[in-house]
Amino acid sequence: MHQTPVRRPYEPIEDTAPQAPTSQRLLSKMRTRQKVMEAARALFSEYGYEAATIRDIARKAGMSTGAVFANFQDKADLFEAVVAEDLDRVAEVMRAAGEAAADRPVSERLLAVFGAAYENGFTDVPLVQAGVSQSWVRPTGLESRGRGRIKVLLGIVGDVLRDAAHKGELRQDFDLRLVSEMLWDTFVGNYRRAAFDGWNHEQLKMRLGDQISILVSGLKA
Amino acid sequence: MLAEGGPLGLRQMQKLATRDRVVGAARELFEGVGYEETTIRMIAERAGVSVGSVFTTFESKVDIFNHILFEKFELLFAELQRIFPHLKGSTCDRIVSLMSIAYGVECRQLDLMISHLAASHGWPERIEAESLRRHGRLVGLFREALEEGASHGELRADADLDLFVDALLAIYLRNYRKAYYERLSPQDLSALIERQVRLIFDGVAV
Fold this sequence. Notes:
The structure holds 2 protein chains of 2 kinds. Chain A is an all-alpha fold. Chain A has helices at 11-14, 21-51, 54-61, 65-71, 75-100, 106-121, 125-137, 140-166, 176-189, 191-197, 201-217. In chain B, 29% of the residues are buried.
């Protein structure tokens, strides 16, 4: 699976005129932060959340543990930052896919939205598994920060459903939040297949297509 | 585990005794301190054995944890199997009843369930395979309910039951997370799963 390059928030700054010393410091701080996050991402993906240590992350980033702690409170905070970066990027990917498929029937449009996330969004399966695992046990404060971002993603799904109800494709009376959450949970749940059975994004998407059709059309005779 | 016929050898008896002590100590720690916070060293100390002998009886912490949980599931699933033939109502009602009973039992130790499910996203394939096997009994009941429903013409003829059973298990498990973070009672969970299962049956299409 290929990895979409992460956008660097500091890139535009480099093109501008010489910086005042404070901006230089800020710039170098952001670079350090980004370096730590890249090292952390690689190690969390390779070893999982528990086994990756701050010491190893610092070593990989080529700096002291002190420098890591100057940027992040602890391992949970660092992990949260890595995940947040992914969630923000995936939100863009999903939103764009939803807009591109605006004229398709609701099942296809939902599949386009989630399929894009499988293909170009959460592509690092071990990291996704680590993220899901941590989302079960993270302390409540961090959990709610992550949840804010998940809510954005759920909102994208919800918009597709609302739009379909508006067009008369779906019933008017269903519980939008419930259906969005069930779709999301199903989408996430399929990563088990990627992790344990080696499914690729095409297989995940095919499976999700079947699952979406169940949720949309029901099973009743 | 047991020798073919005859009484157990001394060594085997010692091994079993160690295993019991390890499991007992681990259970107390998991329930008291929590799974994530418990270390193998703590388990060994409490059981009065060496760290090495913990590892000769179990491969890892998650193996000890699952040993305890799978035993619990076994009891629950056996109970559900016993109750199942007496459950009344539609296919949907029967499945909801099964899950509601399970929530009532498992919510008594919600922390353990949450740790178990969190660990499930990082454990090795060997354990995933065992977990699926252990849940086979519950999945079997879902399937039985659906097949009976299908035989009464309650379900679509072309319904993919495997897919459906999979979805039921996933939703059943995911709800524990909601229960934990949104502090839902077993009654709330029961109401939630009813809406979810009904939704899967009815769909949202016009």
